[in-house]
Design a protein that fits this description.
Length: about 140
């Protein structure tokens, strides 16, 4: 089994897609005004409108209500990413800081309040874990 995407439900697809295109430096594939995907080498971030939830199970997901999930992206240099994001990310929660498990992390919120972590492995063991994951 492969994890292929994480989908974020939003009340404003255009705003959230524009934010992630800028943050990730990746152009979105917009299938419709209600659905877009941002593909990275490690997986896809899908963004869907509340209308898409009704197709699966009405009321099953609510936009801007996440209190438990962090969407994480491995970046080459988290400090450089922090400087690049500084002019448009308005809610930095923490960092950049080096975590006890060996990643240097920057935690911030997207416009819907979802937590996003950009991180770079800085300890040898952390780098080895991520390199092994890419080979799997």
């Amino acid at each position: 089994m492969d994890l292929v995407s994480i989908r974020v439900i939003t009340g404003d697809v255009a705003r959230l897609v524009a934010f992630y295109e800028r943050a990730l430096g990746v152009a979105a594939d917009r299938a419709s005004e209600d659905f877009a995907e941002l593909r990275t080498p490690g997986g896809t971030l899908a963004i869907g409108s509340t209308k898409t939830v009704r197709m699966f199970a009405p009321g099953a997901a609510r936009p801007a209500a996440n209190q438990s999930v962090i969407v994480e992206f491995l970046v080459d240099d988290v400090d450089l990413a922090h400087r690049r994001l500084a002019d448009f990310v308005t809610d930095v929660v923490g960092g950049p800081a080096t975590m006890p498990w060996g990643n240097r992390s920057l935690l911030f919120r997207d416009p819907d309040g979802n937590l996003v972590n950009f991180f770079t492995p800085v300890a040898e063991a952390a780098a080895a874990r991520h390199a092994a994951g890419r080979r799997a």
